């Protein structure tokens, strides 16, 4: 709305005009507060808004869409592969063929694409993902999405090491013979068995990295604990030793105990890899309330470990922590409750100095 010019102000003495133009300390504080609010990511700038019916609907929609998409490759090809590929490509009688391996790696890659799209919508504060709730409301992280995604995908100790392990064990025929079979579809009971056993073994290795010795911890897991307020892209950001002991060794043991077909192992692989990313998210997921009730791993559960170090060693399940007395519910962690103050920018954890 237009206003008439105030001529009395224009006729003020130069010294008075300068005095009025000079910022006061309170003005500086207000400007600083405005800059802080403007710099906050959507997860924190939207923290005071209440959850609406739209938010709940979009959260349910995201849940029903994302998880099937993560499994899209085995779900689509398990009954149609004969129409797509020549029999010679998957005939096991003449030794291992790379088709099963390539489809397995493709399943994880396709799942990653959908997870990264989901994360991008949340990073931008899209209304189609519902209300964003930060896991740690008193701290925030601001980052460039493209840069973070590139760093995530180029981690050699993550996808490269695990992919190399899978390639060697598959092509050198180190997998049980059932894994090379394309017969039958996804056996969900064996997928669950793989997930449970992998997470149990990973729990043991994870706890060992923390407890065996300081030298072992520093050489393996400590780099991953730089992120006391992790984001989704920090899932595989650690060290070669950490990935080898906590992921590769359990994978080798799991495949030796649970024998399943290629589709079941494919479903396990894409669920496992993408779930590990999702539990590192800086915001709660719309399905977390259900996962929490069922004892499945959530972002908040894993943030507890990154914040306190000595609790919640499990990743996909909280069963092992509950049985061994190392589980801490996120609601019982002081840092995860709002302190009713403006959130501060997160700073990486200072590593322990080597003596």
Note down, in words, how this protein is organized.
The chain has 355 residues and is mostly helical. Helices cover 57% and strands 1% of the residues. It is built from 18 helices and 2 strands. Strands 1-2 form a two-stranded parallel ribbon. It is globular and about 65 Å long. The relative contact order is 0.13.
Class by alpha and beta content? mainly alpha
Largest sheet: 2 strands, parallel
End-to-end Cα distance: 68 Å
Helix content: 55-70%
Low-pLDDT segments, ≥5 res: 1-23, 31-38
Count of helix runs = 18
What is the approximate shape? globular
How would you summarize the topology of this molecule?
Blueprint: H1 7-10, H2 14-21, H3 25-39, H4 42-45, H5 53-70, H6 72-77, H7 81-84, H8 87-90, H9 98-123, E1 139-140, H10 145-153, H11 156-171, H12 188-211, H13 214-219, H14 240-257, H15 262-278, H16 288-294, H17 299-308, H18 319-324, E2 344-345
Parallel strand pairs: 1-2
Helix pairs in contact: 5-9, 9-15, 11-14, 12-14, 12-15
Question: What is the compact description of this entry?
Answer:
The chain is mainly α and 355 residues long. 57% of the residues lie in helices and 1% in strands. The chain has helices at 7-10, 14-21, 25-39, 42-45, 53-70, 72-77, 81-84, 87-90, 98-123, 145-153, 156-171, 188-211, 214-219, 240-257, 262-278, 288-294, 299-308, 319-324, and strands at 139-140, 344-345.
Distinctive features:
mainly alpha; 355 residues
